[in-house]
Design a protein that fits this description.
By secondary structure, this protein is α/β, with parallel strands linked by helices. It is elongated, with a radius of gyration of 25 Å.
Amino acid sequence: MISNLEKFFTGCLHLSSPWEVTNVKMDEGQTRVDIRVRNNGKFEFFCPECGGRCQGYDKKEREWQHSDLFDMECHIHCAVDRMKCRGCGKVFMIDVPWAEKGSGFTLLFEAKGIELMREMPVKAAGSFLKTEPHKLWRILDRFVEGRMKHQNLAGLTRFYVDETACRRGHNYITIFADEDHNIIFVTYGNDASTVTRFREHLEQHGGKAENIEYICCDMGKGFQSGIAMEFPKAIVTYDRFHVMEHMS
């Protein structure tokens, strides 16, 4: 029988049928809480390949790190069903509503991680969230990849480009931004090839090189050469900082 405590946590996790919390356990040191979720079997599942009806095949135990609960590390556990299509015979694991496929973190944890990584280094965010930085990098990579898939540059007519050092020595990344200062593309290096890669990215996301009317950049020969080759009709403006630096 599901108690009021389990019903409370079912609501806190925004779960609905067939998903429900069946157990909540806190460790002796009161530093970690583990929540067990199950599906109650009251659902029909259809094959994503052929649309045929599916039946239960087996279960696989999974665990996800969730956002801290009252300053206690929180983890969700669930034996997730694998289903078998009666038509095509395909076997696959069903999706859970609290996490992306293949992720070891809940959606809420990932969202908080993204917000923190906007404001601080990934290592610092990992320390705050009590997880390894390389796992946060995977979250960030997947987030950026997902956003870039839906990026639409069809209306882009001007952009800014600048470089910054990413490591000690002559290691640079080049950043492209739109007129509202939103970053739209980042790539390694600071030579003419960076502009070529940006043009390719622009055209892959609905933009056209011939639509670019204005470009603002520094006075580096690499950028000048790349712009002359890839955006020959654009009017180029040199940013004030570098102009004043040369004058000084």
